[in-house]
Design brief:
- By secondary structure, the protein is α+β, with helices and mostly antiparallel strands.
- The chain has helices at about 5-20, 65-75; strands at about 5, 25-35, 40-45, 55-60, 60-65, 75-85, 85-90, 100, 105.
- It is built from two helices and nine strands.
- The two termini are about 20 Å apart.
């Protein structure tokens, strides 16, 4: 199943990579402890995957996930939404038992 980016999210990542002048780099996705629900999503741009990473490609964007985070991110869909209240990445996680209002913290 894996982690997927929607076309809209992939386009947003590509814009960011181009803005940073790093179009060949990829997106690191991860999970860290903390946040109001117990775990936070993390995102960063990186040049290459680390040893042991799960590597995939979604709509032309390389995605790197460490094995521990992959346990929590398998099946997650990442979208990019724009609204009058702001714009940003939205995570749909079927593994989460609860999430917080900010949308960046969850629990399993």
């Amino acid at each position: 199943m894996g982690l997927t980016l929607t076309e809209t999210a992939a386009a947003a990542v590509k814009r960011l990579l181009e803005k940073e002048q790093k179009p060949a780099w990829g997106l690191r996705m991860g999970v860290t402890g903390g946040g109001c629900a117990g775990m936070n999503y993390s995102m960063a741009i990186e040049e290459t995957p680390k040893e042991g990473d799960v590597v995939s490609e979604c709509h032309g964007v390389r995605v790197f996930v460490d094995p521990k985070s992959y346990l929590y991110l398998n099946g997650v869909e990442v979208d990019y939404v724009e609204s009058m209240m702001g714009s940003g990445f939205k995570f749909s996680n079927p593994n989460a038992s609860k999430s917080c209002g900010c949308g960046t913290s969850f629990a399993v």
